[in-house]
Specification:
Layout: H1 3-30, H2 38-63, H3 69-90, H4 99-121, H5 126-145
Helix pairs in contact: 2-3, 2-4, 2-5, 3-4, 4-5
Length: 151
């Protein structure tokens, strides 16, 4: 077999192999993701509840003048990143039989994210920060009250 023919054949085999890998990757990416385990879901909910309570304590400290605005903004930004990470985890299908809990956790996480951003933007309005802190406390209590049970 001439060298040019061998080179063309090798290139064709390489192209076919690359195409097969791409097709396999496509089907893997397009497959329905695995549902989140109950213990992972429970951990995400506890993290969100903890973040909500921490945000509420920050709000109280800010309204009482115990924190600087810069520190408050930094902490709210950091908590916002934690909540964003938790929301990404909640994008996965929830554990079987807990769909209502997953939807409730998603809604509360969205509300907490909005509160964190609002508090960060209105840091110098103590009345607004106090109201936001009260909502963050409610969110924390609602998350803590969720009874996550394997189905």
């Amino acid at each position: 077999m001439p060298k040019a023919a061998r080179t063309a054949a090798a290139g064709s085999v390489g192209a076919v192999a690359a195409l097969a890998v791409l097709v396999a990757l496509y089907f893997r990416a397009a497959a329905t993701p695995e549902p989140m385990a109950v213990d992972e879901f429970s951990r995400v909910v506890r993290t969100l509840a903890s973040d909500a309570h921490e945000a509420e304590r920050l709000a109280v400290a800010l309204t009482r003048g115990r924190l600087t605005r810069n520190y408050g903004e930094y902490q709210h930004r950091h908590l916002g990143e934690d909540v964003s990470d938790a929301r990404k985890k909640l994008d996965a299908p929830g554990p079987g039989g807990n769909e209502a809990d997953v939807e409730r956790a998603r809604a509360l996480a969205g509300r907490l994210a909005a509160d964190l951003e609002a508090a960060r933007l209105r840091m110098s309005d103590h009345d607004a920060v106090a109201r936001i802190g009260e909502d963050e406390a409610r969110i924390g209590r609602e998350l803590e009250a969720m009874q996550i049970v394997p189905q």
